[in-house]
Amino acid sequence: MFSKIQSLCNLGRSPETLNLFSNPTPSHTSLYLKNLQLCIDKKAQNRCHLIHAHLITNGFGSDLHLNTKLIILYMKMGDVIAARKVFDGMPERSVVSWTAMVSGYSQNGCFEKALMLFSDMLHCGVKANQFTYGSTLMACTSTRYLDMGMQVQGCIQKGRFVDNLFVKSALVDFHSKCGKMEDASYLFETIKERDLVSWNSIISGYAVQGFADDSFCMFRSMLRGGLVPDCYTLGSVLRASAEGGSAVIVVGQIHGIVAQLGYGSYDIVTGLLINAYAKNGSLRSAKDLHQGMLKKDMFSSTALITGYARQKIYSFDALNLFKEMNRTSIGTQVHAFAVKFQLSYDVAMGNALIDMYSKSGEIEDAKRAFDEMEEKNVISWTTLISGYAKHGYGHKAVSLYKKMESEGFEPNDVTFLSLLFACSHTGLTDEGCDCFNDMVNKYNIKPRAEHYSCMVDLFARQGLLEEAYSLLCRIDIKRNASLWGAILGASSVYGYTSLGEEAAGNLFSMEPENSVNYVVLAGIYSAAGLWDDAWKVRKLMEDRKAKKNAGYSLFLAAKRSIIPLMEAS
Questions:
Q1: How far apart are CA 31 and CA 25, in angstroms?
Q2: Which of 181, 213, 279, 281 has fewest C-beta within 10 Å?
Q3: Is 144 within 8 Å of 178 (Cβ atoms)?
Q4: Are 396 and 432 in contact (CB under 8 A)?
Q5: Distance from C-alpha of 153 to C-alpha of 133, rounded to nearest angstrom
Q6: Which long-range contacts (CB under 8 A, 24 or more apart) does 548-553 make?
Q7: pLDDT, average across residues 248-252
Q8: Average pLDDT over the chain, rounded to whole?
């Protein structure tokens, strides 16, 4: 029986295990602990109450370890009242129990309660550990309670955690956030072996207090020491670069590190980059980043509007962006109004809501609006498929198409265009081919240039250049720049020189002043070692006065460490 309960716990099926706890013994404590840990991992609050009741019923209500785990669980769920009830009902408490409460209060924003409980703990004669001190200092930092923090530091100085890295990093953060940068710097210098947390504390402290140069200096020192920054480090130096009026080149270097480390998809980092670019006068870079965001938040939009306002000549851009920001808000209000006064709205209203939410980046809200519709038409399905396609959810788009068919709806040419776009941009080659065949053979829809363009792009992105070129030769429509551009780009990636030449030749005729086509063909020649041909293409580009915008590079050292930022002149 014990092994069966253990197996169910390992599989994450904790509710089933409770039915097997007949005549529980003290040996079952470890299984209860595992059940509670599963609740923490899965954030299963309802299951937590069930296990808690089971514990009390079976005589485990006074167990120290189980009660401590329950406190941690309730605090993770944000239920500080339930956690306090467990704590107050404990016949005995350990330093871990006290620390769980102090830490939970701090993490849930109940800073004053955390500080009061820490005082009660000391009065009860319980000695704090490094995690208790860290959580208490976090509460002092958040409330800027300097006097209390100094008292905590006095306790630390008298104890055995005076040189603990975790505690010292918390002290550095406390002093820097409270404006005591000299004390923070002194403490930081006494840390013998610094980790990323301690570096983040001092870098952030200088940035928050407006010492941009010192923040950058520490950042460079950290990089020279071989540590790789995380999103918190980058956020701090971006704040410093925005407030300190750094040169755009410094912001560009930080942007390069952000891209290199894969933090470009973090909305908060992107928002801080937009803010830094905008405040340093590079509105074009700020606007490009903002337009590339899948979900534009208040911070990033406000940062760009502020940048526009500072330049004064971008008043219309600022107003347009402000209207765009409010469009979703107004649309949500209209939705709420419709629900309040009309329990079920018509198909047109539902379609408009799906379109509004998906175009505003709120794809989950678009799906919710779709699910709430009592009646749907082909436009309803197509609008959500299009939303999935634009946001990169290729599998969801294809799955919705199959569900659409199973419910008896017949897709139209716009549905298939959205599907092909989704498959092309998410690498779903087989699914894209199936959709194209369904369109032509099953629904007798004649493909337009846009459909063929998606199919060529679908093959080209996967390196299937022969299939892409074969399709291009078979189609009976005028070949546009989009079709040849897909071929040229893929030829560059996969090294197809002859095909690249033909695509570029057609593009030179269609877009003689587009510098990108010349640069890509020259790159193909260079990669193949055809230096004379590459030079000729460059010369042709100059003769036709097709100019390329200048760029800059971020170099990676041989040991994969990041090159330290150079001082801005």
A1: 11
A2: 213
A3: yes
A4: no
A5: 9
A6: 548/515, 548/516, 548/519, 552/249, 552/252
A7: 87
A8: 83
